[in-house]
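Internal tracking record. Fields below are filled automatically when a chain is submitted to the structure queue. Please do not edit lines marked as system-generated. If the sequence contains nonstandard residues, flag them in the REMARKS field before resubmitting.
Queue: standard
Priority: normal
Entity type: single polypeptide chain
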Amino acid sequence: FMANDGSMKLKAMLPTSISSEVQSGELQNLGLIRIIDYTCNAVPNQPQ
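SYSTEM-GENERATED OUTPUT FOLLOWS
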């Protein structure tokens, strides 16, 4: 998914632990979420 704070955007992946919220519709497209913790990983051969 694309995360955007109004001034910057980035590509991100959701953990599989919340896939039930996505499938049930509890987490909606263009919804607002609060990110409490995150991990950054470099993806080789990907444009910035």
